[in-house]
Structure formats: C-alpha cells, structure tokens
Amino acid sequence: MHLFRRWIPIEYLVAIGLGVTGAAWPNSSAVLAQAPTPEPEDELGAPEEPVGEPAAPDAEDEPALAPTQSATPVPPPPAAAVPAAPTVPITIPDGEAPPVPIAPAFPPAIPNIDYGARMRIATKIQGVPSPDEPDGWEKLNDISQQLDADIYMGGQIHRMLKWQAGVTISYSGALTAGNSLGGSAFVAPLDVIARFEPIPEFNIYMGRMIVVADRYTPSGPWGMDEFFYPGLVGLPATQPALQKSGTTGRDLGINVWGAPLGGHLKYSLGVYQLHDPALNPLLSGRLQLSLLTPEPAFYQRTTYMGYKDLISVGVGGQYQADGSVGPANPMMPTVPPMTDDYSFLALDLNVEKVLGSAGTLQLYGSYFMFDGNFQRWDNYWFASVGYLVPGVIGIGKLRFSVRYQMGGESDLIPNAEDASILDAQISYNIMAWFARFQVGFRRMEWTIPGSAATMAPTRLAAGNQIYIGVTLADP
To answer: CATH number, domain at 278?
Structure first.
C-alpha cells in the first residue's frame, strides 16, 4: 500500500481544538522516540514536499527599548537549534518513482493518521447481442464505462500496533438483454484491519483483508500494468477462475505472516470467512521465495517497472470443508443445496530483469487447480510478457504487454469448451505505477450453456473489446 503521507501529530489536533494560534510545539524526545519506522510497503514510496523549518519571530514582535537603556544594539540570545529539514526533491522525475522511502520533514508523533486515495476508470467499446443477432458480441457497436475508487486511512498507536481502514466505490457497465446497457454500483468497506507487527518475521492481522494464496492478490489491480485483473473468464462470470474469497478479494479472518531472510522468503497463513458461523473456516496460505531482490512487504507488485531484478517462485493453497456449494433448487427452497469439500492450488513464477539501456523485460506465469463437485472450473492458467521502454518519451515511459488466459471447464456444464482471453496493451506510465494511461484490445471466448426448454445446444461464443483506461494513485 502506497499512500500519500499526511501525518497529523496529536499535539496539532489538541492545539487546533483549543484555538491556539501561536503556541510552540513541544520538542520532546520521549514523543519522537515512538516515531514509526518506514512501512515495508513504502520501500518504493514517493517523496513528500518538505514542510520547512518554523519561521523566526518578526521584528515587530521584539520588546522596545526603555528610554534609559543604551541605544547600542545588543545581540539577541542564540536561538534554539532546530533540526534542518531533509533535502528531498519537490517533484518526481517524469516516468519515474522514488527508489527509496523519504522520511517526512518532521518525524510524526504517535498516534498519527495517514490517508490516501486511488482510482481506475476505463471506457470500453464492445459488442452487444440482440434477439436478431445473438452473436453480436464480436461487433464494436456499443460503449460502456467502468469506475473503481478506493479511499484509504491508516494509523499507528504504538510502534507495534497499527490499523488501516478503507472504502471502495465501484460502478461498472453491465451487458443486459437487447441493446441496452445496465450497470451495477456499490459502496462497501474494503480493508478494516488491526495490525500487530512486533518483528518483520512475525505479524498478526485481524479483520477484513485480502485472502492470500496467489501472487496477484497482494498486488491487486493497482500493482500490475494490465488494466483488467486476471481470472475473470466467462461472460457472465458466474464463478471466476480465481482463489476463493468475498467481494474485492477480501474476507473476515485472521492472518499470520512474516518475511524472514530480509524478505527473500515470505509466508502467509490465514483463516477466513469467519463472518458467518454457519460456514466452515476457509484455510488459505502461501509460501514465496524471491531470489534476486527481497519483497518484505505484506503488499507487493506484479511488476516493479525497472526498479527490481526479480525471480519469484510461489505456491499457495486453500481448503474449506463443504466449501463447494451446488445450486439451490427453486422447487424446494427450504432444502439446503448439496455441498462438497473445496480445495485450490496455485503455482506461479515471476521473472523481471532490467536489461540496462535496453529496457526491462518481464515474464509471468500462473497455474491454478480447483477441486469440488460444484466448481465451475477444473483448471486455469495464464502467461504474460511485458517490455518497458528505457527512455522517457514526453513525460512518461511506454510499456507493451501481451497476456493469454485459459480456463478449463469442469463437468458442471456438459460439452463445455475451454474459455480464453487474449489481452494486448500499451501503457504510458507518467509516474511508474502511480499514474498511467492504458490502451488495449481484448479477444474473449466463453461457453454459453444450452437450454433444455428451448432445445438450444451448448456453444462457444466470442467477443471483442477495445478499452482506454487511466489509473491514478497517491504515491
């Protein structure tokens, strides 16, 4: 998580509440001793504009000389030494992100508050079927828009105790019957986490948080270059080919994680779906080895866009007793649906290499396996290749990527064929992953189940899409 730092020391809040306008802030070493160390996820954080040193008192505020005093000027007593603010760049160079975290000009006291926001917006040109043209998906004859925005807050109570909370806002144009476009909008909690972080090798998170099993989830759509998150094969995607979780990849639970060996090794073990006592707990875990460069943070990126040489190998899994749930019977609504045990296995490899003046090359691959009698997918895999141009063009850098996804249908839909998505994209990265524009093309193929009532057979449908997206996030 990279948030735009806005620290609010508690002394400031007290002063504002009392209406004090000219008080001097205490410079207690006891307070500053609890100043938080930089967050692991801020290893590539953005610099802040320096706050500057406190201004010296104006000349008219000095007491006037008495008539009997000598007019000979008396040198004022030496002022108390004030630590100089660190020299940091005011702006970030075009196309770049800061390589190291920058401390704030005044170390924040504890407790404090940190907040930020981010958004993704895409305009999509695509086909829409109609009763006269059921295969109208391939035509580029309609337009829709997708919008996602997050507002984040976080704070630190003690050097080992932190909290974070967030709200997500989403609106997506949805395809409906005929030529019309519907939509779905919602505002919901995102992360609400109590964080106990005694040492980098052992941390405990409790609350609503991401369910960690594969590599993409700790990255999310914000830490990757492609606009669309992988795994959503099938239209409509009644059951996406992804690890199990609630909305936005999150669920209520407890997660224990750590990053031994300075972050070259990272583990995560969690128990989720604790919001409903009727559900069996969902067990989810991951083990990751980063060979060249460590990744010590809980959150990470799928691509570091030239800031790290990376060879990452990961394995993750999930298990939930009775977690594969069959469809409800509309004729007997009081009868519980049939269930089976659910399991999931994820394997992934991520290689990113800076080729000097030749740019940055990235290769990525993942393979998922699903088990459960009522799972839509039997397996799912995808692979991508990305190339970042080394030099700045205008105010940003260009990156080219191609990604192919394929989902193997289970026996849940008889005679179903494998679904696939091909993405080709050009992104223009003005400030690395914090500010970028994306233009891409998608080719999708998915199975439309047959209908016994209409005697329609199961068939493979295809669709095309062109999109223009923008991603903006506080660094």
So the answer is: 2.40.160.10
Please, what's the largest Cα pairwise distance for the chain? 112
Nearest partner of 347 among 364, 362, 363, 361, judged by Cα: 364
pLDDT tier, 104 (very low <50, low <70, confident <90, very high otherwise): low
- 202-210 and 250-258 beta bridge pairing: antiparallel
Taking CA atoms, 463 is separated from 242, 422, 443, 469, in Å, by 21, 11, 6, 19
Distance (Å) of CA 348 to CA 1, 175, 404, 449:
22, 32, 15, 31
CA 238/CA 449 separation, integer angstroms: 12
Q: Return d(Cα 262, Cα 265) in angstroms, integer.
A: 8
Name the residue with tokens 């609350």: 207
Instruction: State how far the Cα of 301 lies from the Cα of 358, in Å rounded to an integer.
Output: 22
Is position 405 within any domain? yes
CA angle 147, 295, 42 (to 5 degrees): 60
**Would the pLDDT of 114 be above 60?**
yes
Say if 456 falls within a structural domain: yes
> What does the pLDDT look like over 54-98, one tens digit per residue?
333 343 343 333 444 444 555 555 555 555 555 545 567 777 876
Question: How big is the CA angle at 294 (ends 293 and 298), to the nearest 5 degrees?
Answer: 140
Angstrom distance (rounded) from CA 97 to CA 320: 41
**343 to each of 149, 287, 318, how far by Cα in Å?**
32, 17, 5
Residue 80 buriedness (CB in 10 A; 0-12 / 13-18 / 19+): exposed
- Positive or negative, the CA dihedral 354, 355, 358, 361 is negative
Contact assessment for residue 376 and residue 414, using Cβ atoms and an 8 Å cutoff = no
Residue 233 maps to a domain: yes
Q: Report yes or no on 47 lying in a domain.
A: no
pLDDT digits (tens, 9 = 90+) for 330-365: 788 788 889 999 999 999 999 999 999 999 999 999
Residues 6+ apart with CB under 8 A from 397: 95, 305, 388, 389, 390, 391, 428, 429
The domain tally of the chain equals 1
SS3 state of residue 36: coil
Bridge-based pairing state of the strands 161-175 and 181-199: antiparallel
Mean pLDDT of 406-424: 88
State the pTM of this model: 0.77
